[in-house]
Design a protein that fits this description.
mainly alpha, Amino acid/polyamine transporter I, two-stranded antiparallel ribbon, Amino acid permease, transmembrane, transmembrane helix
Protein backbone atom coordinates (compact mmCIF):
# COMPACT_ATOMS: atom_id res chain seq x y z
CA UNK A 1 0.00 0.00 0.00
CA UNK A 2 1.12 3.55 -0.73
CA UNK A 3 1.73 6.19 1.93
CA UNK A 4 0.35 9.76 1.58
CA UNK A 5 3.87 10.90 0.69
CA UNK A 6 4.16 8.37 -2.14
CA UNK A 7 0.73 9.35 -3.47
CA UNK A 8 1.82 13.00 -3.32
CA UNK A 9 4.96 12.21 -5.35
CA UNK A 10 2.94 10.29 -7.93
CA UNK A 11 0.46 13.15 -8.18
CA UNK A 12 3.09 15.90 -8.50
CA UNK A 13 4.80 13.82 -11.18
CA UNK A 14 1.55 13.28 -13.08
CA UNK A 15 0.72 17.00 -13.12
CA UNK A 16 4.47 17.77 -13.53
CA UNK A 17 5.32 21.42 -12.70
CA UNK A 18 8.23 21.36 -15.15
CA UNK A 19 6.02 20.04 -17.93
CA UNK A 20 3.42 22.72 -17.15
CA UNK A 21 6.02 25.52 -17.17
CA UNK A 22 8.35 24.50 -20.00
CA UNK A 23 5.90 22.78 -22.36
CA UNK A 24 2.55 24.24 -21.34
CA UNK A 25 4.24 27.61 -20.86
CA UNK A 26 5.52 27.56 -24.43
CA UNK A 27 2.03 26.84 -25.75
CA UNK A 28 0.40 29.58 -23.64
CA UNK A 29 3.08 32.11 -24.61
CA UNK A 30 2.35 31.33 -28.26
CA UNK A 31 -1.36 31.74 -27.59
CA UNK A 32 -1.43 34.94 -25.49
CA UNK A 33 2.14 36.28 -25.33
CA UNK A 34 2.87 38.10 -22.10
CA UNK A 35 -0.80 37.54 -21.20
CA UNK A 36 0.46 34.13 -20.12
CA UNK A 37 1.28 35.76 -16.77
CA UNK A 38 -2.41 36.49 -16.21
CA UNK A 39 -3.17 32.99 -17.45
CA UNK A 40 -0.93 31.31 -14.90
CA UNK A 41 -1.91 33.55 -11.96
CA UNK A 42 -5.67 33.30 -12.49
CA UNK A 43 -5.47 29.75 -13.76
CA UNK A 44 -3.43 28.63 -10.75
CA UNK A 45 -6.00 30.16 -8.41
CA UNK A 46 -8.79 28.33 -10.23
CA UNK A 47 -6.90 25.03 -10.15
CA UNK A 48 -6.19 25.26 -6.42
CA UNK A 49 -9.86 26.02 -5.78
CA UNK A 50 -11.04 23.11 -7.92
CA UNK A 51 -8.72 20.81 -5.99
CA UNK A 52 -10.88 21.39 -2.91
CA UNK A 53 -13.88 19.89 -4.74
CA UNK A 54 -11.87 16.84 -5.73
CA UNK A 55 -10.63 16.53 -2.15
CA UNK A 56 -14.10 16.47 -0.58
CA UNK A 57 -15.52 14.07 -3.17
CA UNK A 58 -12.56 11.66 -3.06
CA UNK A 59 -12.62 11.57 0.75
CA UNK A 60 -16.27 10.55 0.57
CA UNK A 61 -16.01 8.06 -2.31
CA UNK A 62 -12.44 6.84 -2.91
CA UNK A 63 -12.04 4.48 -5.89
CA UNK A 64 -9.89 3.58 -8.91
CA UNK A 65 -12.18 5.49 -11.27
CA UNK A 66 -11.08 8.79 -9.79
CA UNK A 67 -13.99 11.10 -9.04
CA UNK A 68 -16.62 9.41 -11.18
CA UNK A 69 -17.75 6.91 -8.52
CA UNK A 70 -18.71 9.92 -6.38
CA UNK A 71 -20.57 11.58 -9.25
CA UNK A 72 -22.43 8.34 -9.93
CA UNK A 73 -23.65 7.99 -6.34
CA UNK A 74 -24.62 11.64 -5.93
CA UNK A 75 -25.86 12.72 -9.38
CA UNK A 76 -26.69 9.35 -10.90
CA UNK A 77 -25.55 7.64 -14.13
CA UNK A 78 -27.45 9.99 -16.46
CA UNK A 79 -24.89 12.71 -15.68
CA UNK A 80 -21.90 10.51 -14.86
CA UNK A 81 -22.02 8.56 -18.12
CA UNK A 82 -21.47 11.61 -20.40
CA UNK A 83 -18.85 12.93 -17.96
CA UNK A 84 -16.92 9.66 -18.20
CA UNK A 85 -17.13 9.50 -21.99
CA UNK A 86 -15.99 13.12 -22.29
CA UNK A 87 -12.98 12.44 -20.09
CA UNK A 88 -12.23 9.41 -22.24
CA UNK A 89 -12.17 11.56 -25.37
CA UNK A 90 -9.84 14.03 -23.67
CA UNK A 91 -7.40 11.54 -22.13
CA UNK A 92 -5.77 10.50 -25.41
CA UNK A 93 -4.94 14.06 -26.57
CA UNK A 94 -3.78 14.74 -23.01
CA UNK A 95 -1.30 11.89 -23.17
CA UNK A 96 -0.20 12.93 -26.67
CA UNK A 97 0.38 16.55 -25.57
CA UNK A 98 2.76 15.28 -22.91
CA UNK A 99 4.69 13.05 -25.29
CA UNK A 100 4.97 15.64 -28.08
CA UNK A 101 6.63 18.06 -25.67
CA UNK A 102 9.72 15.86 -25.43
CA UNK A 103 10.53 16.04 -29.16
CA UNK A 104 12.20 19.48 -29.41
CA UNK A 105 14.37 18.82 -26.35
CA UNK A 106 15.47 15.33 -27.42
CA UNK A 107 16.43 16.69 -30.84
CA UNK A 108 18.81 19.14 -29.14
CA UNK A 109 20.95 16.09 -28.39
CA UNK A 110 19.84 13.79 -31.25
CA UNK A 111 19.05 16.18 -34.14
CA UNK A 112 18.61 13.33 -36.63
CA UNK A 113 15.87 11.62 -34.60
CA UNK A 114 12.43 12.05 -36.28
CA UNK A 115 9.86 13.76 -34.08
CA UNK A 116 7.28 11.00 -34.56
CA UNK A 117 9.77 8.37 -33.43
CA UNK A 118 10.62 10.39 -30.31
CA UNK A 119 6.92 10.62 -29.39
CA UNK A 120 6.18 6.93 -29.96
CA UNK A 121 9.37 5.86 -28.19
CA UNK A 122 8.48 7.98 -25.16
CA UNK A 123 5.00 6.43 -24.98
CA UNK A 124 6.30 2.88 -25.42
CA UNK A 125 8.98 3.08 -22.72
CA UNK A 126 6.57 4.85 -20.35
CA UNK A 127 4.01 2.08 -20.88
CA UNK A 128 6.62 -0.55 -20.03
CA UNK A 129 7.47 1.16 -16.74
CA UNK A 130 3.78 1.78 -15.96
CA UNK A 131 3.14 -1.96 -16.37
CA UNK A 132 5.42 -2.79 -13.42
CA UNK A 133 4.26 -2.97 -9.82
CA UNK A 134 2.89 0.37 -8.71
CA UNK A 135 5.39 0.83 -5.86
CA UNK A 136 8.32 0.23 -8.21
CA UNK A 137 6.82 2.72 -10.66
CA UNK A 138 6.51 5.26 -7.85
CA UNK A 139 10.20 4.83 -7.00
CA UNK A 140 11.25 5.47 -10.61
CA UNK A 141 9.06 8.57 -10.70
CA UNK A 142 10.54 9.93 -7.45
CA UNK A 143 14.05 9.67 -8.91
CA UNK A 144 13.04 11.65 -12.01
CA UNK A 145 11.27 14.25 -9.85
CA UNK A 146 14.59 15.41 -8.39
CA UNK A 147 15.87 16.37 -11.85
CA UNK A 148 12.56 18.05 -12.56
CA UNK A 149 12.77 20.32 -9.53
CA UNK A 150 16.37 21.30 -10.37
CA UNK A 151 15.24 22.50 -13.80
CA UNK A 152 12.57 24.67 -12.18
CA UNK A 153 15.09 26.14 -9.74
CA UNK A 154 17.43 27.12 -12.58
CA UNK A 155 14.63 28.91 -14.47
CA UNK A 156 13.49 30.70 -11.30
CA UNK A 157 17.03 31.79 -10.46
CA UNK A 158 17.72 33.09 -13.96
CA UNK A 159 14.44 35.02 -13.91
CA UNK A 160 15.16 36.60 -10.53
CA UNK A 161 18.65 37.69 -11.61
CA UNK A 162 17.33 39.33 -14.80
CA UNK A 163 14.09 40.72 -13.34
CA UNK A 164 12.90 43.90 -15.10
CA UNK A 165 10.37 46.16 -13.41
CA UNK A 166 9.44 47.65 -16.79
CA UNK A 167 8.03 44.28 -17.86
CA UNK A 168 5.16 44.72 -15.41
CA UNK A 169 3.53 46.85 -18.10
CA UNK A 170 3.59 43.83 -20.43
CA UNK A 171 1.52 41.87 -17.91
CA UNK A 172 -1.24 44.47 -17.62
CA UNK A 173 -1.11 45.34 -21.33
CA UNK A 174 -0.18 41.98 -22.86
CA UNK A 175 1.35 41.58 -26.31
CA UNK A 176 1.85 38.47 -28.42
CA UNK A 177 3.74 37.43 -31.54
CA UNK A 178 1.61 37.65 -34.68
CA UNK A 179 4.55 36.29 -36.67
CA UNK A 180 8.30 35.93 -36.23
CA UNK A 181 8.86 39.60 -37.01
CA UNK A 182 5.65 41.19 -35.74
CA UNK A 183 4.01 41.69 -32.34
CA UNK A 184 0.65 43.19 -31.40
CA UNK A 185 -1.69 43.60 -28.45
CA UNK A 186 -2.95 40.21 -27.32
CA UNK A 187 -6.69 39.82 -28.06
CA UNK A 188 -8.82 39.55 -24.89
CA UNK A 189 -10.19 36.24 -26.18
CA UNK A 190 -6.64 34.83 -26.30
CA UNK A 191 -5.96 35.99 -22.75
CA UNK A 192 -9.22 34.37 -21.61
CA UNK A 193 -8.13 31.12 -23.27
CA UNK A 194 -4.75 31.51 -21.55
CA UNK A 195 -6.54 31.56 -18.18
CA UNK A 196 -8.35 28.33 -19.06
CA UNK A 197 -5.13 26.75 -20.31
CA UNK A 198 -3.28 28.02 -17.23
CA UNK A 199 -5.87 26.38 -14.99
CA UNK A 200 -5.40 23.15 -16.89
CA UNK A 201 -1.60 23.35 -16.58
CA UNK A 202 -1.80 24.02 -12.85
CA UNK A 203 -4.49 21.40 -12.32
CA UNK A 204 -3.90 17.74 -11.63
CA UNK A 205 -4.32 17.33 -7.88
CA UNK A 206 -7.11 14.91 -8.75
CA UNK A 207 -4.51 12.46 -10.08
CA UNK A 208 -4.20 11.39 -6.45
CA UNK A 209 -7.76 10.05 -6.57
CA UNK A 210 -6.78 7.41 -9.13
CA UNK A 211 -4.39 5.87 -6.59
CA UNK A 212 -6.91 5.84 -3.74
CA UNK A 213 -7.27 2.05 -3.86
CA UNK A 214 -3.52 1.69 -3.46
CA UNK A 215 -3.34 4.12 -0.52
CA UNK A 216 -3.50 3.08 3.13
CA UNK A 217 -6.56 4.48 4.94
CA UNK A 218 -7.56 6.50 1.84
CA UNK A 219 -10.94 7.63 3.13
CA UNK A 220 -9.30 9.57 5.96
CA UNK A 221 -6.08 10.66 4.25
CA UNK A 222 -6.82 11.29 0.56
CA UNK A 223 -8.66 14.61 1.06
CA UNK A 224 -5.77 16.56 2.62
CA UNK A 225 -3.34 15.09 0.07
CA UNK A 226 -5.48 16.34 -2.83
CA UNK A 227 -6.10 19.78 -1.30
CA UNK A 228 -2.47 20.50 -0.38
CA UNK A 229 -1.21 19.15 -3.70
CA UNK A 230 -3.50 21.56 -5.53
CA UNK A 231 -2.13 24.57 -3.65
CA UNK A 232 1.54 23.54 -3.85
CA UNK A 233 1.31 22.75 -7.56
CA UNK A 234 -0.36 26.07 -8.39
CA UNK A 235 2.42 28.01 -6.62
CA UNK A 236 5.28 25.95 -8.07
CA UNK A 237 3.92 26.42 -11.60
CA UNK A 238 2.76 30.04 -11.55
CA UNK A 239 5.78 31.61 -9.82
CA UNK A 240 8.53 30.50 -12.29
CA UNK A 241 6.34 31.18 -15.34
CA UNK A 242 5.41 34.70 -14.23
CA UNK A 243 8.98 35.55 -13.16
CA UNK A 244 10.26 34.44 -16.58
CA UNK A 245 7.87 36.86 -18.33
CA UNK A 246 9.04 39.65 -16.02
CA UNK A 247 12.67 38.96 -16.99
CA UNK A 248 12.45 38.80 -20.81
CA UNK A 249 14.85 41.20 -22.54
CA UNK A 250 14.15 40.62 -26.25
CA UNK A 251 10.36 40.26 -26.14
CA UNK A 252 9.62 39.78 -29.88
CA UNK A 253 12.34 37.15 -30.35
CA UNK A 254 11.34 35.25 -27.22
CA UNK A 255 7.60 35.20 -27.91
CA UNK A 256 8.09 34.08 -31.52
CA UNK A 257 10.64 31.36 -30.69
CA UNK A 258 9.64 27.71 -31.17
CA UNK A 259 10.34 27.13 -27.47
CA UNK A 260 10.24 30.51 -25.64
CA UNK A 261 11.31 29.03 -22.31
CA UNK A 262 14.43 27.43 -23.84
CA UNK A 263 15.14 30.65 -25.75
CA UNK A 264 15.02 32.62 -22.49
CA UNK A 265 17.49 30.24 -20.83
CA UNK A 266 19.83 30.41 -23.81
CA UNK A 267 19.97 34.20 -23.44
CA UNK A 268 20.29 34.32 -19.65
CA UNK A 269 22.49 31.32 -18.79
CA UNK A 270 25.53 29.54 -20.19
CA UNK A 271 25.21 26.83 -22.89
CA UNK A 272 26.09 24.01 -20.51
CA UNK A 273 23.47 25.13 -17.98
CA UNK A 274 20.89 25.29 -20.75
CA UNK A 275 21.85 21.76 -21.82
CA UNK A 276 21.56 20.41 -18.28
CA UNK A 277 18.14 22.02 -17.92
CA UNK A 278 17.09 20.46 -21.23
CA UNK A 279 18.04 17.05 -19.83
CA UNK A 280 15.94 17.83 -16.76
CA UNK A 281 13.01 18.77 -18.99
CA UNK A 282 13.31 15.48 -20.90
CA UNK A 283 13.30 13.62 -17.60
CA UNK A 284 10.30 15.65 -16.40
CA UNK A 285 8.23 14.98 -19.50
CA UNK A 286 9.09 11.30 -19.43
CA UNK A 287 8.24 11.23 -15.74
CA UNK A 288 4.92 12.93 -16.46
CA UNK A 289 4.00 10.45 -19.19
CA UNK A 290 4.73 7.47 -16.90
CA UNK A 291 2.60 8.85 -14.05
CA UNK A 292 -0.23 9.86 -16.41
CA UNK A 293 -0.23 6.39 -17.98
CA UNK A 294 -0.38 4.76 -14.56
CA UNK A 295 -3.36 6.92 -13.56
CA UNK A 296 -5.30 6.85 -16.83
CA UNK A 297 -4.85 3.09 -17.23
CA UNK A 298 -6.56 2.62 -13.86
CA UNK A 299 -9.43 4.86 -14.93
CA UNK A 300 -9.84 2.96 -18.21
CA UNK A 301 -9.67 -0.34 -16.35
CA UNK A 302 -12.44 0.78 -14.00
CA UNK A 303 -14.55 1.89 -16.95
CA UNK A 304 -14.10 -1.42 -18.73
CA UNK A 305 -14.97 -3.26 -15.54
CA UNK A 306 -18.15 -1.19 -15.24
CA UNK A 307 -19.17 -1.98 -18.85
CA UNK A 308 -19.00 1.58 -20.17
CA UNK A 309 -18.08 0.45 -23.70
CA UNK A 310 -19.04 -2.46 -25.96
CA UNK A 311 -18.17 -5.96 -24.77
CA UNK A 312 -14.92 -6.54 -26.79
CA UNK A 313 -13.43 -3.23 -25.63
CA UNK A 314 -14.50 -3.83 -22.04
CA UNK A 315 -12.78 -7.24 -22.14
CA UNK A 316 -9.51 -5.64 -23.25
CA UNK A 317 -9.69 -2.92 -20.59
CA UNK A 318 -10.38 -5.47 -17.85
CA UNK A 319 -7.12 -7.31 -18.57
CA UNK A 320 -4.75 -7.25 -15.60
CA UNK A 321 -1.21 -8.64 -15.34
CA UNK A 322 -1.31 -11.66 -13.00
CA UNK A 323 2.18 -10.83 -11.75
CA UNK A 324 2.19 -7.04 -11.28
CA UNK A 325 -1.60 -6.42 -11.08
CA UNK A 326 -1.13 -3.57 -13.58
CA UNK A 327 -4.02 -2.94 -16.05
CA UNK A 328 -2.11 -4.05 -19.14
CA UNK A 329 -5.08 -3.98 -21.53
CA UNK A 330 -5.76 -0.34 -20.71
CA UNK A 331 -2.07 0.51 -21.15
CA UNK A 332 -2.10 -0.96 -24.66
CA UNK A 333 -5.18 1.10 -25.58
CA UNK A 334 -3.51 4.26 -24.24
CA UNK A 335 -0.35 3.52 -26.21
CA UNK A 336 -2.18 2.98 -29.50
CA UNK A 337 -4.73 5.82 -29.36
CA UNK A 338 -2.42 8.28 -27.59
CA UNK A 339 0.20 7.67 -30.25
CA UNK A 340 -2.32 8.61 -32.96
CA UNK A 341 -3.17 12.06 -31.53
CA UNK A 342 -0.02 14.20 -32.06
CA UNK A 343 -1.11 15.06 -35.62
CA UNK A 344 -3.71 17.43 -34.11
CA UNK A 345 -1.01 20.02 -33.40
CA UNK A 346 -0.06 22.03 -30.30
CA UNK A 347 -2.90 24.59 -30.28
CA UNK A 348 -5.65 22.01 -30.80
CA UNK A 349 -4.20 19.67 -28.18
CA UNK A 350 -4.01 22.50 -25.60
CA UNK A 351 -7.54 23.78 -26.17
CA UNK A 352 -9.08 20.33 -26.49
CA UNK A 353 -7.60 19.08 -23.23
CA UNK A 354 -8.19 22.26 -21.20
CA UNK A 355 -11.81 22.95 -22.18
CA UNK A 356 -13.54 20.25 -20.11
CA UNK A 357 -16.50 22.36 -18.98
CA UNK A 358 -18.33 19.32 -17.59
CA UNK A 359 -15.76 18.79 -14.85
CA UNK A 360 -16.35 22.16 -13.19
CA UNK A 361 -20.11 21.93 -13.67
CA UNK A 362 -20.65 18.43 -12.30
CA UNK A 363 -18.11 18.68 -9.46
CA UNK A 364 -19.80 21.83 -8.22
CA UNK A 365 -23.27 20.30 -8.50
CA UNK A 366 -22.11 17.09 -6.83
CA UNK A 367 -20.74 18.85 -3.75
CA UNK A 368 -23.84 21.06 -3.47
CA UNK A 369 -26.17 18.06 -3.81
CA UNK A 370 -24.09 15.76 -1.62
CA UNK A 371 -23.91 18.27 1.22
CA UNK A 372 -27.65 18.90 1.06
CA UNK A 373 -28.39 15.15 1.12
CA UNK A 374 -25.92 14.41 3.93
CA UNK A 375 -23.88 12.08 1.72
CA UNK A 376 -20.43 13.62 2.22
CA UNK A 377 -17.76 12.30 4.57
CA UNK A 378 -16.67 14.20 7.66
CA UNK A 379 -12.98 13.48 6.95
CA UNK A 380 -12.58 16.47 4.61
CA UNK A 381 -14.96 19.39 4.10
CA UNK A 382 -14.53 22.62 2.15
CA UNK A 383 -14.85 25.75 4.25
CA UNK A 384 -17.00 28.74 3.24
CA UNK A 385 -19.52 26.38 1.65
CA UNK A 386 -21.25 26.86 -0.82
CA UNK A 387 -18.88 29.48 -2.30
CA UNK A 388 -16.46 27.04 -3.96
CA UNK A 389 -18.98 24.78 -5.73
CA UNK A 390 -21.00 27.81 -6.92
CA UNK A 391 -17.82 29.31 -8.39
CA UNK A 392 -17.14 26.00 -10.13
CA UNK A 393 -20.55 26.04 -11.81
CA UNK A 394 -19.99 29.63 -12.99
CA UNK A 395 -16.53 28.66 -14.24
CA UNK A 396 -18.01 25.97 -16.48
CA UNK A 397 -20.09 28.64 -18.23
CA UNK A 398 -16.99 30.84 -18.60
CA UNK A 399 -15.03 28.00 -20.21
CA UNK A 400 -17.70 27.50 -22.86
CA UNK A 401 -17.96 31.25 -23.51
CA UNK A 402 -14.18 31.74 -23.78
CA UNK A 403 -13.77 28.77 -26.10
CA UNK A 404 -16.66 29.86 -28.31
CA UNK A 405 -15.16 33.35 -28.65
CA UNK A 406 -12.10 31.87 -30.39
CA UNK A 407 -13.41 31.11 -33.88
CA UNK A 408 -10.06 29.74 -35.08
CA UNK A 409 -9.69 26.72 -32.81
CA UNK A 410 -11.52 27.12 -29.50
CA UNK A 411 -14.97 27.02 -31.08
CA UNK A 412 -14.21 23.70 -32.76
CA UNK A 413 -12.90 22.20 -29.51
CA UNK A 414 -15.88 23.39 -27.47
CA UNK A 415 -18.26 22.23 -30.19
CA UNK A 416 -16.72 18.76 -30.19
CA UNK A 417 -16.83 18.42 -26.40
CA UNK A 418 -20.41 19.72 -26.18
CA UNK A 419 -21.46 17.28 -28.90
CA UNK A 420 -19.88 14.33 -27.07
CA UNK A 421 -21.49 15.29 -23.77
CA UNK A 422 -24.98 15.95 -25.14
CA UNK A 423 -24.94 12.85 -27.36
CA UNK A 424 -23.84 10.63 -24.47
CA UNK A 425 -26.52 12.10 -22.21
CA UNK A 426 -29.35 11.45 -24.66
CA UNK A 427 -27.98 8.02 -25.61
CA UNK A 428 -28.03 7.00 -21.96
CA UNK A 429 -31.56 8.34 -21.50
CA UNK A 430 -32.77 6.61 -24.67
CA UNK A 431 -31.24 3.31 -23.58
CA UNK A 432 -32.85 3.60 -20.17
CA UNK A 433 -36.30 4.33 -21.59
CA UNK A 434 -36.00 1.41 -24.02
CA UNK A 435 -35.47 -0.89 -21.05
CA UNK A 436 -31.76 -1.52 -21.59
CA UNK A 437 -29.60 -1.94 -18.51
CA UNK A 438 -27.85 1.27 -17.47
CA UNK A 439 -24.14 1.31 -16.81
CA UNK A 440 -23.22 0.94 -13.13
CA UNK A 441 -20.22 3.20 -12.55
CA UNK A 442 -18.65 2.03 -9.33
CA UNK A 443 -14.90 2.46 -9.86
CA UNK A 444 -14.30 -0.41 -7.43
CA UNK A 445 -11.08 -2.22 -6.60
CA UNK A 446 -8.70 -3.67 -9.18
CA UNK A 447 -9.55 -7.29 -9.85
Amino acid sequence: MLSPGEVFLLTISALSPVFSVFIGGNAILHLAGTGAAIGFICGGTIAATMALLFAELSASFPGAGGVYPALNVILGPRWTYPFVLLRTVIMFPLLAFGATGVGPYIRLFLPMLPEDLAVLGTLAVAAMIASTQIRRGAQVIAAFLILELLALLVLTGAALIHFKTANLALVFNPIYAVSRDSIASAPPANVALAVIAGAFMAAGADWATFFAEDMHDARRRIGPVVAWTGLIAAICIAVPAVLMILAIDDVPATLSAEAPMAHFLDRTTSPWISSVVSLGIIAAIFNNVIAVMMALSRQLHAMGRDGVFIAPINAILRSVSPRTRAPTGALIVLLVLGGACPFLGERRLVLLTSANFSECLLLGLAVLTGRRAGMMSEHFRIRLHPLVPVLAVLLSVSIVAAGWADAETGRVSIGLLLTVFVTAFFWHELSRRMGRATVVLTGSDLE
